[in-house]
Write a structure and sequence with these properties.
CATH class of one domain: Alpha Beta
Strand content: 25-35%
CATH topology of one domain: Rossmann fold
Largest sheet: 6 strands, mixed
Strand order of the largest sheet: 6-7-8-3-9-10
Order of helices and strands: EEEHEEHEHHHEHEHEEHEHEEHEH
């Protein structure tokens, strides 16, 4: 019986020379869901992906993907996964179709089946018109879509997306999001690393925050937001005098004032607190120009957690040449 988790990581540690990049990572990802792994540069996100995809061996700990141990059964892992790394892995001199057919043949598809699958993927990723052009003529967004398509020649049980939209313009990023959403609907398990907090908020079922080689928080986007902050009401007064008088009247948790913008904000526990603020202003004829309610964002979560954690971010390891036993093509 298969585990309910497609990815299981227990006390994962990875050291490059004197630098310990991962310091005991524990992480489980349920089948058919997406987990977004957030963290600052140097936190160890890409090292986690490399350990999961058998591109590096853990110094210690255990990593299991689709039921296969990444050290004892690397072939089982590789037959279960797709990987889209930060850098586009395509032959730019060949056409998009030729790249896909080549990947199909490497996956042991027959020539007819590889050609058929390439056609399907070009249609799915809206690349049909460009399919017979050299990849070197593609835009950045088109290359990323083709790279993702290449990882899906044979539909994997688990897909690793390592910062797949880095460097894309907003429109290309949105196209990639739409494609990823469709893949989630097909039952694939996805682990996404990203520096775009909105991306994690939009796509992920769960989010884990990695800092200094450790997981410092995990939960849904809403759970993490609620854990670090509460909803606030913000009012902007019409005049300096109204701002001064309002500052004397309004009290509450997390009160913040900004004389330059004549803004007052405070935490609210219930909608009735907003009414109380408005009633106070109205009773004293204090005119305001705007009122807004704001909820914590993932940006707030990220900065609050990494600041609270206080763990210095590990520097990126010096150039490291992996041995043949560590690195192999993920086919």
């Amino acid at each position: 019986m298969k585990s309910q988790y497609a990815i299981q990581i227990k006390d994962l540690r990875k050291r490059y020379g004197d630098v310990e990049v991962l310091k005991g990572v524990d992480l489980d990802v349920r089948r058919g869901t997406m987990l977004a792994l957030l963290g600052p540069n140097g936190a160890g996100k890409t090292t986690v992906v490399k350990a999961l995809s058998t591109l590096t061996r853990p110094t210690s700990g255990t990593v299991t993907v689709n039921g296969f141990d990444t050290v004892r059964d690397r072939n089982g892992v590789r037959s279960s996964i797709g990987l889209v790394s930060q850098f586009v892995a395509l032959d730019w001199m060949h056409t998009g179709r030729e790249n896909l057919v080549m990947m199909g043949r490497l996956q042991r598809l027959s020539k007819p089946n590889a050609a058929k699958r390439a056609q399907q993927l070009l249609e799915q990723f809206e690349l049909l018109d460009a399919g017979d052009r050299p990849v070197k003529t593609y835009s950045g967004g088109m290359k990323r879509r083709l790279d993702l398509a290449a990882s899906l020649i044979v539909t994997p049980a688990v897909l690793f997306l390592d910062e797949p939209t880095t460097g894309l313009d907003p429109r290309s990023r949105q196209v990639m999001w739409d494609v990823i959403r469709k893949m989630l609907g097909s039952g694939i398990t996805i682990l996404l690393t990203t520096q775009y907090l909105e991306e994690a908020d939009q796509l992920a079922d769960e989010i884990a925050v990695l800092n200094g080689g450790r997981i410092i928080a995990q939960g849904t986007a809403e759970e993490l937001k609620q854990a670090v902050g509460k909803e606030r009401v913000e009012v902007v007064l019409a005049t300096d005098e109204a701002f001064r008088r309002a500052g004397e009247l309004i009290t509450g948790e997390g009160l913040q004032t900004d004389p330059e913008t004549r803004t007052i904000s405070l935490v609210i526990e219930a909608p009735s607190h907003v009414k109380r603020v408005l009633d106070q202003l109205e009773q004293h004829d204090l005119e305001l120009t705007s009122l807004s309610l704001t909820k914590p964002t993932l940006d707030d979560v990220f900065f609050a957690l990494t600041k609270r954690d206080g763990t210095p971010v590990a520097p990126a390891p010096a150039a490291h040449t992996s041995t043949d036993s560590e690195v192999g093509a993920v086919l």
